[in-house]
Amino acid sequence: MACGVVPVATRVGGLPEVVIHGESGYLEAVGDVAGQAGRVLELLGNPGLRAEMERQARQRAEKVFCSTLIIPRYEALYHELAG
Questions:
Q1: Distance of CA 40 to CAs 65, 69, 72, Å?
Q2: Which domain covers residue 32, as residue numbers?
């Protein structure tokens, strides 16, 4: 996402916290290979949609994984756990 690649992934683990389905990427059910392939074909066949989702994916990655935001959160968690 940080490189402007639109993720087409499964709806598992922490991915739904990062990828906003239909905006910054696509999330399909585990095992839905046909659904994932369809999303990839949709992106390849629609340059305008792909460009917009690439932009949103990059913005989302910068927002979620911004080092100035995430590092203090990890530090606070470590301090809390360490007592």
A1: 24, 31, 36
A2: 8-82
Q: pLDDT value at position 61?
A: 92
Sign of the Cα torsion 25, 30, 33, 38 reads negative
Q: Look at residue 1 and tell me if it is in a domain.
A: no
- Would residue 2 count as lying in a domain? no
User: In 2-66, which ranges are continuous DSSP H helix?
Assistant: 15-18, 33-45, 47-64
Q: Which amino acid is at 43?
A: L
Structural domains of the chain, count? 1
Note whether residue 41 is domain-resident.
yes
pLDDT in tens, 26-72: 999 999 999 999 999 999 999 999 999 999 999 999 888 888 888 89
Cα distance between residue 66 and residue 82, in whole Å = 24
pTM attached to this predicted model: 0.80
